[in-house]
Amino acid sequence: MFHKEGAKIILISTFIFTVLLLGTPYLTDNPWILKPVQLFLLAFLVIILQFFRNPNRVLVPNDQHVYAPVDGKVVVIEEVFEPEYFKDKRIQVSIFMSPINVHVTRYAIGGKVRYSKYHPGKYLVAWHPKASTENERTTVVIENRVFGEILYRQIAGALAKRIVNYAEEGTFVRQGEDAGFIKFGSRVDLYFPLGTNINVTLNQKAVGNKTIIATK
After folding, report:
1. Could you read off the pLDDT of 114-169 as tens digits, one per residue?
2. Tell me, what DSSP letter sits at residue 135?
3. Cβ atoms of residues 63 and 143 within 8 Å
4. Angstrom distances, CA of residue 55 to CA of 2, 58, 195, 209, 213
């Protein structure tokens, strides 16, 4: 199953792959050249397909749990000052996604979207300390009946050139549903109230809709 955000790229890539694959035998009949070229084209198509995959992960909503919004590695767990919305100290948990991870963003918690804003910016590597405030990003705040307001931030990386965000202010969203997509390398930050029980550790692998990031 593939994400709708990849439909155009997948169609174009498949067309190019087919044309080049059928055309290479006319350019050379040397098997030492032909086979590596064909394998390279196949590998390129596989990379595109795996990047836009969208595993079907059924989640039973639970307001006592905040689930990982993306697949990746937990790279930050620390108390920080959140300057955009809360303007106070929060617990930040950051998940870094490599190009081979699933890049679908899912709602970590259900509730009402109180804030949703896009910020143009730089394309520093996603693990850079200033990526949260200087890179292209979107900031979304969801008000949940148990946790209160939870902020998550989609951050573009050095390769990511487009962030897709489905959250609209004033709407109600369901935990686990698609919240957006970040194309080609990225990171997602979550901000929790101080005292929240964080359920993950640094360098832990997180799986969207499966790994519990925090509990109440």
Report:
1. 999 999 876 565 555 666 666 788 999 999 999 999 999 998 866 555 788 999 99
2. B
3. no
4. 8, 9, 33, 10, 19
Distances from the Cα of 186 to the Cαs of 49, 88, 105, 171, 189, in angstroms?
17, 25, 11, 25, 10
40: exposed, middle or buried (C-beta count within 10 Å: 0-12, 13-18, 19+)?
exposed
- Burial label, 107 (beta-carbon count in 10 A; 0-12, 13-18, 19+): buried
- The rounded distance, in Å, linking the Cα atoms of 176 and 149 is 17
Q: Which of 207, 198, 206, 201 is nearest to 65 (CA)?
A: 198
Distances (CA, A) of 57 to 68, 71, 149, 177: 12, 12, 25, 10
Active site residue 116: no
Catalytic option among 13, 94, 132, 186:
186
Element at 151 (helix H, strand E)? strand 148-156
pLDDT value of residue 14: 84
Could you give the angle at the alpha carbon of 66 between the alpha carbons of 199 and 99, nearest 5°? 85
The sign of the torsion formed by the CA atoms of 160, 133, 118, 188 equals positive
Note the pLDDT of residue 185. Answer: 63
Q: Exposed/middle/buried for 59, CB within 10 Å: 0-12, 13-18, 19+?
A: middle
pTM of the model: 0.80
Which residues, given as ranges, of the chain have pLDDT below 50? Answer: none
